[in-house]
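The records we work with from here on pair a chain with its fold. These numbers are not coordinates but entries in a learned vocabulary of local backbone shapes. To see the layout at work, look at the sequence and tokens printed below.

. . .
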Amino acid sequence: MLIDEIITGRDGPVFSFEFSPPKTDEGEANLRATLAQLRELEPAFASVTYGAGGSTRARTLEITKWLKADLGIEAMAHLTCVGASIGDLRRTLEDLAEAGIENVLALRGDPPQGATSWQPHPEGLRHAAELIDLARREFPALGVAAAAYPEVHPEATDPLTDLQHLKAKVDRGAGVLITQLFFDNGAYFRFVDAARFAGIEVPILPGIMPITNVAQIKRITGLCGASIPSGLLEQLEQRADDPESVAELGVAYATLQCAELLAHGAPGIHFYTLNRSPATRAILSALKLAHPAAAPKPVGG
């Protein structure tokens, strides 16, 4: 089922997860255990990321297929332009279609590690909007999602230009937008208002990452351009030497953040899990108690 149809067809909010393909067999075993645990929470869908330069392409396809075929979770594979020709991208889309995968998250992708700037493949695509156009034109039955940036893409010259690029993604066929992680709900609300004013009407699903490690979240936000509110950062730094306390604060903050987002009309929450289940399970269990409509309806009900 297409992700945009899942979102618009629910009476209540949708909850979903993002995972990354592990690089080792041990990591894959751990991820499968995590997925099996999170399956109990009946997510609306799960997405699987794509390594730099397609480095995890095979594992992305394998995990995505396993999610859908064996766990019965609607799955969405990430797809990037990095290091890929149009022919490569077309073959990957064909593989996904043959595997029964109905949804992709189309991204330009980040420069490979060590590269100082983005450089497209000589026979590839330059922008996510072009990838969306390719997917929708040649695979019309495919559902395509795109990324959005409440605090502006790190490479954008200004918010208006960033919004114009986002509108191009939707105009090319993106049916749902998933935001980069953020910790200031005001940034999401302002962003949604600006997107609606610009004529972007597709669902905009907020992306939330529960904080479990101070050094890690500083590194992640430094890469993606997200900010950490000063008060939250101060509290995290005071707990930096106590991992359990950091995780407790991270879960509490994310739970309050999600509750406010849903209370003000967000269509659901997309959790960046970092391939771990405890924090996400705790948050989602609490949210489902407050939003019982998010549970899937029985067949025929």
In short: The longest strand covers residues 14-19. Residues 3-294 form a domain with the TIM Barrel fold (CATH 3.20.20.220).
